[in-house]
Amino acid sequence: MKKKIVSVMLCAAMATTVLAGCGSSNTASTDAAAEETAEDVEAEATKEEAEDAEAAEEATDAAEVTTVEPGVLTMGTNATFPPYEYKDGDDVVGIDAEIAQALADKLGLQLEIVDMDFDSLVASVQSGKIDMSLAGMTVTEERKQNVDFTDSYATGVQVIIVKEDSDIASADDLEGKLIGVQQGTTGHLYCADDFGEDNVIPYANGATAVQALLQGKVDCVVIDQEPAKAFVEANEGLKILETAYTTEDYAAAVSKDNPALTAALNSALQELKDDGTIQGILDKYIKAE
Ligand code: ARG
């Protein structure tokens, strides 16, 4: 857009020079005409500049955003994480699906959701297979080495699920216990750091980790609070410990090569926060205690 303004102004300058050149070897009236023409061109340029600025304001940054598939916002997720993303028949639904739809609408793009393993998401963003991941993904320093994150749209809490009769009462009791986690999640990474890789058993998804807990293969499961609530509700004999393991921020991950998309998503996200859309979506799925 800036380029266009510059080239229009350049034309104006050129027109002045050329016409003034003619004027000097001819009559005064040609000079006047030249000036008028130059003025016209300049006025035109100013008008265009104003229109451009207006349009830019309206369309935010959407016009400059490039996506993997033109006109489409391709979101990667791992739909095993209720209420953020889960399957309803063939559809991926939940908080992140609704937020992504609202973001796509703001950017004038069509939304496409690709379901994949959670630990493939960052690489898929990096390789340009997807435009962004929206997957209840926590912002971490390690992930930031590989992808950019948008502003945060929700808070996550890592909690501990145990059997109702467990002797584990808090994170302090996890030493030497077998901890089930979803592969590649922060629960996995933090527990491996804190309690050693040998004490952590990664599963393809949270539901499988919870089945392993019910079968006595692990002593607890460390996972994000909202899916934990859903899993505990769906199964007899489990409880979530009162003391949380850690608190974190969820955000969308975008390629480091596409800062325009990150910027556009951030301004759309801000509008959706300001008008209450994000809170409305969160409240629809997460009932106050
Ligand atoms: N918040 C955790 C993380 O970023 C878990 C996210 C898992 N999300 C999912 N859709 N399965 O590592």
From TrEMBL:
Bias (Acidic residues) ranges: 33-61
Residue segments, region Disordered: 23-64
Highest taxon listed in the record's lineage: Bacteria
KW Chloroplast (keyword) present: no
Signal peptide limits: 1-20
UniProt keyword terms in alphabetical order: Signal
Domain (Solute-binding protein family 3/N-terminal) ranges: 72-289
Gene3D superfamilies linked: Periplasmic binding protein-like II (3.40.190.10)
InterPro entries, A to Z: Solute-binding_3/MltF_N
Alphabetical list of PANTHER family matching this protein: ARGININE-BINDING EXTRACELLULAR PROTEIN ARTP (PTHR35936:SF17), MEMBRANE-BOUND LYTIC MUREIN TRANSGLYCOSYLASE F (PTHR35936)
Protein name: ABC transporter substrate-binding protein
Source organism: Hominiventricola aquisgranensis
